[in-house]
Each structure stands twice: as structure tokens, then as C-alpha cells.
Amino acid sequence: MNLTLFGFILANLFRRKARTLLTLASLAAGFLLFGLLQAVQLAFDRGVELSGDDRLITQGRYSFTEILPIGYRAQIAAVPGVELVTHAQWFGGYYQKQSNFFPNFAVDPESYLDMYPEFLISPEARAAFIATRDGAVAGRSLAARFNWKIGDRIPIMATIWPRAGGALDWSFQLVGLFEGRDETARSQEGMLLFHHDYFDEARQFAKGTTGIYIVRIAGPELADRVAAEIDRRFRNSPNETKTGPEKAFNQSFIKQIGDIEAIIAIVLSAVFFTLLLLTANTMSQAVRERTAELAILKTIGFSGRRVLGMVLAEALLLCLIGALAGLGLTALIMPGLAAAVAAWFPGLGLVTATWIEGLAIAALLAAAIGLPPAIAASRLTIVAALARRIA
Amino acid sequence: MNDNEQQPLIRLRGVGKTYRRGREAIEVLKNLDLDITCGDFLALMGPSGSGKTTLLNLLGGLDHPDAGTIEIGGARLDRMSDADMTRWRAAHVGFIFQFYNLMPVLNARQNVELPLLLTRLGAGERRRRAMIALDLVGLAERAEHKPRELSGGQEQRVAIARAIVADPDLLVCDEPTGDLDRATADEILGLLQILNREHGKTVIMVTHDPQASKFARRIVHIDKGVLQAAAEAS
Description:
The structure holds two protein chains of two kinds.
Chain A: H1 5-13, H2 17-49, E1 55-60, E2 68-69, H3 72-77, E3 82-90, E4 104-107, H4 109-115, E5 119-121, H5 123-131, E6 135-139, H6 140-146, E7 153-157, E8 169-180, H7 183-186, E9 192-195, H8 196-202, E10 209-210, E11 212-217, H9 223-233, E12 241-245, H10 246-257, H11 260-288, H12 291-299, H13 304-341, H14 352-378, H15 382-390
Parallel strand pairs in A: 4-9, 6-8
Antiparallel strand pairs in A: 1-11, 1-12, 2-10, 3-4, 3-11, 5-8, 6-9, 7-8
Chain B: H1 3-6, E1 8-21, E2 24-37, E3 41-45, H2 52-59, E4 67-72, E5 75-76, H3 82-92, E6 93-96, H4 108-113, H5 123-136, H6 152-164, E7 170-174, H7 182-197, E8 202-206, H8 210-213, E9 218-223, E10 226-232
Parallel strand pairs in B: 3-8, 3-9, 6-7, 7-8
Antiparallel strand pairs in B: 1-2, 1-4, 4-5, 9-10
Helix pairs in contact in B: 5-6, 6-7
């Protein structure tokens, strides 16, 4: 094989195969974790991304768990700048066993589907949903998860809302499926929607209320004014409201679980700091043990800058191979993983931005671990290095 | 000797070198004058600590003198920056060391090719020249072997091929046979002699070995940093 500078750098990197392979395995594991956690972050982000700039959420002033009178709908609709109002009540039910949990809401079918054109539903299914009092529609991935077919009766166990008489078992007739218009909307296919009227009539308490109102406004620039006006209308009432952009609502909803972004950042910082120490040690050791060889390179005419470049390139190669292996592994397992968890945790995926971010982190890592030994190698005094070799 | 060989390739005047060990200053070379003609084969001899390796380092452009001038082929080494010296070494000097100092991750041919990576030559031409150099030292058939698969003598031959592949004027050899048995050492010295006599390379060799010095044209003794005497080798 012809000798090239790249070939020489590569050969140096793998001169101690076991050490390099173990370091690469650590890097790959770190970047696999990075890829998976970024996928989790993406799944949460997609829920937030679905938020429309022209949609507001009106909730109870102190918490979205407060209930609001159903009569607010007409009053909100009367606020100037409001185009459409719908409502949704978190039901919190599960199918067969508690681990089969998924988001399910009592909604007003017609206005809810109008509010979310990103959920595609056939005209027949839409009509059936509106016409069937105990009807429900499910996201395509949710139906696939439980193998539901149109026409099935779906038993759902309530955790919050008993029926009149105290029974927790509810039953809905599946009349249609909806699917996401794009990748972001597809991440929300794990939902079940059913009639508010049916739910309200059958539930044991809190009749005549809903959880939140979703408000479409004429333009995003009206958001602050409309939100303020809605809240003003219900000020000093028994059910004061707080209205804000849908995105902020979704973000605060996700933060109920925890500050996912911060948790992921902390975990990844710890991972990459450990990798930094590990790979820095490997690089320093690799360069230190060939001080004499570096001195020979400089003796035969390799400049300090070229030697610096070679050591840095070696560090970069190490980190990039590790990152590509880790992210490649993530890409390999992601389709299966995403499919396996799609119904209860939809939206997992490995996107180009994660690849770019991962490779950028690898480059930064390489600079951090490569620069100290590279600078030392470039400043190496030939005479002193060769004298040490002889000594 | 032809006319070219009579030209002084190397001229040292008043060269001094002092090292510091803590607060102590050690004067390794003292006010040293030396001329080496083009095509000479000079053996530098002297006891340990006499300053012969320091002198060799100065002649090879690996170190700067603290005093005096060093002129080699018209270039003033004592005035050169580190970067200029690096370029000068690559173009004009081939180095041969006691411990061969080959790159263990490269095979013999690739080791020889290494200095040519600094040139604009294409991969094919680099390979061809490396094979010529290996052929010259009688090791073409071991071209694809790694250093660990070669004997000491073979490794030193590869090192010599590496030293001559860029066709330098000057070969600087630091105890080139110090790690070899007598027969192998004589082979290596014979090879250096051929490079000197048939290929016109100027060779400067540091050695402890009186037998090795017999291969040189001239012997210079150095002791306590001072040149003692120059003698024609037998």
C-alpha cells in the first residue's frame, strides 16, 4: 500500500489495537447514549412543535388540572380576534392494564378536528365520529399497537373519572382512525379522542365542565391582546383563567414530568466529561510513548506545525470513528425501538441535526484531548528527546 | 578526489555550546574551528561526554550554537530560525542513528518513503525512489516487512535507505554500528563507504569504535569540547 500521511496517522492510531478499540467502544457507547437521549428530546420537542402559533390555550389560572365551565366557550368565542374555540378534557384512562397507558381526551369532535388540520381523517370517519355519541377515533399507531379495528368496542378503565354509580369501566366504539400529516404530527398518533357530550352525561361529577379551551386566533400578532381579554372576562369569577400560546402550554405540560432538556443535558455532560478524561489519557499516553518517533519525524524535516496537525488529526480520527460508530448503532436500532414504543412514546427518531451535533461534539472533544499532546509534540526539542531515548 | 571534493562544504569558526544543568553551566564545545570538504568521510572520536554528539547535532542542524559560525554549503546555520533549519535538514541532511529509529507501524519501504512525504512527488514516484534506495542497500526483497521482522543490520540498512532517499549532500551518523555485531557493523560501514566513494556523499560519523573509524577518510578527536587532532585514516 502506498504511504500517505492519512495512512500513517491511521496506522499510528491503531498501533495498540486493544487500547484503541476499547477507547472507541467507550466513545461509541457515549455517542449511542447521546443519540438515544437526543431521540427522547426530539420526541418531546415534536409535541411542542405541533403547537400552532395561532392557537392559544385557556386553562385554570393556577393549574391545568382545574376545571372550567363549559359555558366559557361562547364567551371566549365572542372575544374579538377569536376564530374558533374547542375544548378538551384529559381523561387519563388505560386499556386493559395500567401499563397500557396512552393520552385520551374527551373533545368536541367537529371543532376539535377543525382546530387540528394536521390530523388527517377521512370524511367518512369524521362524519361517523360526529354522529356516534359513544364513538371514538384513535391515532393510527395507537390502533396498531392494540390491534384495534374499526367497529371494535374499546374498554377503557378510568383513573380520574368514574361513571355515574362509581364504575370505572368505560366503553367506546372505534369509528375511525386519524394520522399525522407530517413527521411531527405523526408523533401524536398515540391519542384516543371521544365525545365530550357522551362523557359529560355519563360521568359521576363535574358535569358541565371541561379541562382546557383551545382557541384559534386571526393571527399570531393578536395573541397577547386576545389572551389578556379572555382572562379579563373571567377575572374575579370562581373559575379564573390563564391564557397563553399553545407552545408554552405544551412546554409546561412536559415540565410536569420534569425538565427533560436539563436532565438530558446533565446526563450527557457527565458522559462526555468522563469520555474526555478517558480519551485524553489514551491520547496523551499514545503520544508520550512515541516521543522518540516524533523527534525523528522532526529530524527528517517534519515541521512543528505538521507534527501538531498529525497528532490533532489522530485525535479527530479517534473521536469521529467513535462518534460515527455510536450514532451508526443508534441509527441501526432506532427504527425497531421507535416502532416498539411508538404507541406510548411516539416521535422517537434520529434526525440529521443529531448527526451534525454529534459530529461537532466529536470535533470539540478531539480538540480538547488532542491539543495538549499536539502542542507538546510540536514543541518537542529533538536533541533532548533523542537524548532521553539513548538514556 | 575531484575538484568538487576539495571545496569546503562545512566551515565552523569559533563554535561554542553551553548547556545549563540547574545553576551549573556546562561548556560542552569551546571555540571550535573545523573544515570538512565535500565528499569527506570524517570519523569523530572521543570519550563519553567529550562533546562529539553535540558537535554532530550542530553539524546536522538539530541545534544552534551559542557562539561562532556554522556555514554548510553556503548556508549559515547559526543564523537560521527553527523553521528554516527544519527545511534545510529535509533538503540537505540524512540521519543515521545507533538505534535505527524506524517507525514500527510502517514497513521498510514506507519507512524509506517517509521523508518524501514532505516533497511534491506523487505516490508512484515516491514508491519508485524508495525501492531504488532499498535496492542500493540490498534490501529490496524485504521492502514489505515491518521493522520487528528485520534483524538489527537490516533495520540499519533501512535507516540508511531512509537517510539517502531524498538525495542529501550530507550523511550524519551517530554511532551507526553501536548496536551491531562486528560482521554486521563492517557491512554497514562498507555501505557508508560506498555511499561516500561512489555516490559522493559527505559522511560525518560519531563512533567509539577504532575499527569503525578505519572506514573513514579522516579521524578527528575531540576531548572536553576541544578538537585534538585530525588524522588521515589508515
